[in-house]
From TrEMBL:
Organism (species): Amycolatopsis samaneae
Source domain of life: Bacteria
Protein's recorded name: Phosphoribosyltransferase
InterPro entries recorded: PRTase-like, PRTase_dom
SUPFAM superfamilies named among the record's database cross-references: PRTase-like
Entry keywords, A to Z: Glycosyltransferase, Transferase
Domain Phosphoribosyltransferase: 19-186
Single GO MF annotation: glycosyltransferase activity
């Protein structure tokens, strides 16, 4: 952990560094025909390091945050390209909202999720997941609502075991994923967690081009 001039602690240089640290926890475990899925976009560079360490194929899973009306950065739910959206029902109740109030935002985010899948997959057949150990990897776990949506979509493919892994996780979110994932693996779950980006020196936005490059490099390596 590094302490910057403003007193803020950083654990990871960038997403690849976080991925290598995470891979160190996962490398020695027994896996059954594993496949690693990066949660696009920021999870893909992390997942690339994990897949390389495990000698496993790398693929992608897409879930999009559904933001609060007028405050899109405040996630109330998430949606994948197909299937029903996932909502934080407790927060909806506190705000006096229901799914109908978020229908327009949900439709827009689903359309973006489908665009991303088309961009990343192209004509390539997704890596099979049935009967395999599947690791869904992200750059961090904050509220967990996007991870829950992604895990639900992957679970429908009937993996043997479903694991969520990230370099840094909010402790409350880890607890919320139990029962959704068979296991949650984090390098760190600090009590003073506020946002994923606070733990990285470099937390710039991952682009579509970077995602495609990481996926392409993983295919070439195998």
């Amino acid at each position: 952990m590094r302490l910057l001039r403003d007193g803020t602690a950083r654990m990871f240089t960038d997403r690849r560094d976080g991925g290598r640290r995470l891979a160190g926890l996962l490398r020695e475990r027994p896996w059954s025909d594993p496949v690693v899925l990066g949660l696009a976009r920021g999870g893909v560079p992390v997942a690339g390091e994990v897949a390389a360490a495990l000698g496993a194929p790398l693929d992608v899973v897409v879930a999009r945050k559904i933001g609060a009306p007028g405050h899109p950065e405040f996630g109330l739910g998430a949606v994948t390209p197909d299937g029903p959206p996932t909502y934080d029902e407790r927060t909806l109740a506190v705000l006096g909202l229901d799914a109908g109030d978020l229908a327009e935002s949900c439709a827009a985010e689903r359309a973006e999720a489908r665009r991303r899948v088309a961009c990343y997959q192209g004509n390539r057949t997704p890596e099979p997941r049935r009967g395999r150990d599947v690791l869904v990897v992200d750059d961090g776990l904050a509220t967990g609502v996007t991870a829950r949506a992604a895990l639900g979509a992957v679970r429908a493919g009937r993996p043997r075991r479903l694991v969520f892994a990230a370099p840094v996780c909010a402790p409350d979110a880890v607890a919320a994923l139990r029962g959704v994932a068979d296991e949650v693996v984090c390098v760190a779950a600090p009590e003073d967690f506020r946002a994923v980006g606070q733990w990285y020196d470099d937390f710039g936005q991952t682009t579509d081009r970077e995602v495609v490059a990481v996926l392409g490099a993983a295919r070439a390596r195998r």
